[in-house]
Amino acid sequence: MKLVVFDMDGTLIDSQEFILMAMRYAFDKAGYPAPDKADVLSIVGLSLDKAVAQLLPGLSPAENARAVDLYRASFIELRETMGERAGAPLYPGARAALARLHAVDEILLGVATGKARRGLDHAYDQHKIGHYFETSQTADTHPSKPHPAMLHQALRETGVEAARAIMVGDTEFDMEMGRAAGFKTIGVSWGYHPVSRLAAADVIIDDFAELDDALAQLWS
């Protein structure tokens, strides 16, 4: 068996505008200056406590925890207020790529995301893609990327060996996590980190149409 694990934000779905809105809303409530777009996108994929610590490095642990709680509350509040407008679209070709891979008997699919379980479930419900994944790992039950715990658990749940597993993501955190777990790695150029930060990737692709060939190359 083979395993392909996908990151979510910046890889399968484009959630940057809603993340930016929620972060700025939370920072305003906390009385901090609004973070720059580039700074916010640079920390997507990290657990919230680590993300806030990078955006506001001078905070005490209690202040960091308050900012994290405000972000979570802001995210939920905005989603409830905006309804369908809060949705994050799938990237072009993402659904077709998942369907193609899912149809191959020896390939299992998974997700390893910095989202909490609630956020991942919302993405699954919005796009009706949850059935594609054999394993789903989230930040609320694991250490932050690039720690390999999420990928180790994915291997345990699927029974696949690390040598037959590939991590697909858009950030250097995904690439470092994959390498730490013994996975091969595929970086995508359309996400939130520039390609210059994906140096640890074994392969970089510019379109989901290139994914199948990249996987075949790494498995060969």
Write the layout of secondary structure elements.
Elements: E1 2-6, H1 16-30, H2 37-42, H3 48-55, H4 61-82, H5 94-102, E2 107-112, H6 117-127, E3 135-137, H7 149-158, E4 165-169, H8 172-180, E5 184-188, E6 203-205, H9 211-219
Parallel strand pairs: 1-2, 1-4, 2-3, 4-5, 5-6
Walk me through this protein's architecture.
With 220 residues, this protein is an alpha/beta fold. The protein has two domains: 2-14 and 90-219, Rossmann fold (3-Layer(aba) Sandwich), CATH 3.40.50; 16-86, DNA polymerase, domain 1 (Orthogonal Bundle), CATH 1.10.150. The protein has nine helices and six strands; from the N terminus they run βαααααβαβαβαββα. The two termini are 14 Å apart. It has a six-stranded parallel β-sheet with strand order 3-2-1-4-5-6, with helices on both faces. α1 crosses α4 and α3 (48-55) crosses α4.
Helix percent band:
40-55%
CATH superfamily of the largest domain: HAD superfamily/HAD-like
Write down the secondary-structure element order.
Answer: EHHHHHEHEHEHEEH
For the report, how would you describe the main beta sheet?
6 strands, parallel
Mean pLDDT: 92
CATH architecture of the largest domain, by name, is: 3-Layer(aba) Sandwich
Radius of gyration: 17 Å
